[in-house]
Design brief:
It is built from 18 helices and 20 strands. It is α/β, with parallel strands linked by helices. α8 (298-305) packs parallel to α9. The chain is globular.
């Protein structure tokens, strides 16, 4: 078992309701998107050896856990989230020996490694699916197969089993000529959904998970794990199928209805997750398991992460990162601090007594927060807003996640042409919404892609100011798989590493606080002012120790709200300032004037 380089929270301090306290209660997780982190062989794609070569950087940051996005064998239709062999490393990323070396070297530095697990679906090139294409095989029922509608020509429009559309565009049903039936895919047509109703599917998944755990990994982050259970009627038919007892919702403007209400947090999710816990984790120690949780709200998060229910340690909820989207992902709504506060309040209060929260604004599917909600128009605003949102995430109660480059204040890609994008979701969405359904103009769609496109988070890690940002050698035979952000000349790790005022230095302070302050890690959370348009303020309390966190999440000076000012009525001395996005002297002066500068965040000891 990996020994972490910091102390755990004493058991007399309550965390998630378990005894003893879990090791991850004051841990910080760092997500690596391998293809964009570090290329070691000049092929333009990041790899495992590259990650191993950068472990000292990760150790210096102080994080406890690496979450590794998929490196399994894959056709790379969805950048590795379409797995063709769970027990092999894709040659793009290296070999199993490279994976073993990464584990060994990370563990030697006191860093745990969890792997991304994608078991809602596989690749259509997986051996399971290939066998399932034979209706007489033992795996015939391992996926969601359905015949064409009666009286319709198989493979022609209108013959699909129901009207569901894929989240990646087009129908959620793909006709397979070999089997003569359709298979269901919530995502790409190369990502058929596994049928978790079949116990043999679940058994095979658990065997694979145990194989990895036995190899020494420290747990899993589980992709869209709350979509493994689908709503079916008493005869096993999906909503909207001919003869189904359950009606589908009407089709939307793009011509499809959504499977989301019937495939997210379905009726057997708790049963499946509890079974997984028993079969894979129950007799092990030192692990963590976190689930990506489409369709799960704050109250359900409390239930699933309650240790008494023995399901998952924590979940990623998405209600707070949808506050700037309208009826579709590509409908841009202006950021409003009040909406963010409302969502995070629900998440924090839901786990007040039991369960745990995952804290994040960025990951491989979410755009860079400094461009999305902050301000990257000037260097000063970029740095201050990056620190402000870092403080927001890391001062809440739960386990914080840092996405690679977030600790540098990396920005969105600012692409202006569709040809610059590589993400299947973005390319398909443009075709479906602009070219086919004509529900959005090309100009507004490009604006939406610039705001929400997943490639904004996937440009190469910015290590230095050289030609390819140090991601790959300047004279490498191949260019990076996606363009390096031109601002890497100014924004990079080398420029920030020894700068005490850098975003990187600020993130080191956040990690250190999480490790060494039980108030930050496990103290009670309480909102102070609930309707201010700029300042987000809350307290963290543990026994007699109390901290006030106040963050101006706007690019203008803001008055401190009334209740916040009341808590500061006796004034604040410099030695009471625990952390500031500016500095202690500046923040003491701001508080004395009853205001905060643009993007100013302050933590004070009350």
């Amino acid at each position: 078992m990996t020994t972490l380089n910091r102390s755990a929270i004493p058991d007399d301090v309550r965390t998630n309701g378990a005894t003893p306290n879990p090791w991850w209660a004051n841990a910080v997780v760092y997500q690596i998107y391998p293809r964009s982190f570090q290329d070691s062989n000049g092929d333009g794609i990041g790899d495992l050896k590259g990650i191993t070569s950068r472990l000292d950087y990760i150790a210096d940051l102080g994080v406890d856990v690496i979450w590794l996005s998929p490196v399994y064998q894959s056709p790379q239709d969805d950048n590795g989230y379409d797995i063709s062999d769970y027990q092999a490393i894709d040659p793009l990323f290296g070999t199993m020996e490279d994976m073993n070396e990464l584990l060994e070297q990370a563990h030697a530095r006191g860093i745990k490694v969890i792997m991304d697990l994608v078991v809602n679906h596989t690749s259509d090139e997986h051996a399971w699916f290939q066998e399932s294409r034979d209706p007489n095989s033992a795996k015939a029922d391992w996926y969601w197969w359905r015949p064409a509608r009666e009286g319709k020509t198989p493979g022609e429009p209108g013959a699909e089993p129901n009207e569901w559309g894929s989240y990646f565009g087009g129908s959620a049903w793909q006709y397979d000529e070999q089997r003569g039936e359709y298979f269901f895919h919530q995502y790409s047509k190369k990502q058929p959904d596994l049928n978790w109703e079949n116990p043999e599917v679940r058994k095979a998944v658990y065997q694979m998970m145990n194989w990895w755990m036995d190899r020494g990994i420290d747990g899993f982050r589980m992709d869209v794990i709350t979509q493994i259970s689908k709503v079916v009627d008493s005869h096993g038919r999906l909503p909207g199928e001919p003869g189904s007892e359950i009606e589908d919702y009407p089709a939307g403007p793009e011509g499809y209805s959504s499977p989301y209400p019937f495939c997210s947090d379905g009726p057997r999710v708790d049963e499946f997750l509890a079974e997984m816990r028993r079969e894979v984790f129950e007799q092990r120690g030192g692990y963590m398991n976190v689930g990506e949780a489409p369709g799960v709200d704050a109250s359900r998060n409390e239930y699933i992460t309650d240790p008494a229910h023995k399901e998952l340690d924590m979940l990623f909820l998405f209600d707070h990162v949808g506050i700037d989207q309208g009826d579709s992902k590509w409908d841009v709504v202006q950021f409003d601090v009040r909406h963010l506060r409302e969502r995070l309040k629900e998440q924090q209060e839901a786990v007040h007594d039991r369960g745990w929260a995952s804290l994040f604004t960025c990951n491989h599917d979410q755009p860079r927060v400094v461009t999305r909600w902050g301000d990257d128009s000037t260097e000063e605003n970029r740095a201050h807003s990056a620190k402000a949102f870092g403080m927001l995430v890391h001062l809440h109660r739960g386990t914080p996640y840092i996405y690679q480059g977030e600790e540098l204040g990396m920005t969105g890609a600012h692409f202006t042409e569709l040809g610059q994008y590589r993400d299947l979701e973005a390319i398909n969405a443009y075709r479906q919404r602009v070219t086919e359904a004509k529900v959005q103009s090309g100009e507004s769609m490009m604006d939406a892609l610039a705001m929400f496109g997943r490639d904004n988070a996937r440009t190469p890690m910015q290590w230095d100011g050289s030609k390819y940002a140090g991601f790959t050698a300047a004279d490498a035979p191949k260019e990076p798989w996606i363009s390096v952000n031109p601002n890497h000349v100014e924004i990079n790790a080398a420029a920030q590493f020894d700068d005490p005022d850098s975003v990187y230095a600020f993130y080191k302070k956040l990690v250190n606080l999480r490790h060494n302050s039980p108030v930050v890690a496990a103290g009670e959370w309480e909102l102070v002012d609930d309707n201010d348009e700029a300042v987000y303020a809350f307290t963290r309390t543990l026994g007699e120790r109390r901290m006030l966190v106040m963050i101006n999440l706007s690019g203008r000076h803001a008055q401190l709200p009334a209740h916040t000012q009341e808590l500061l009525r006796n004034g604040v001395a410099e030695d009471h300032v625990v952390l500031s996005t500016y500095n202690a002297i500046h923040s003491v002066k701001s508080i004395a004037k009853g205001e905060l500068s643009e993007w100013e965040g302050v933590v004070v000891q009350l």
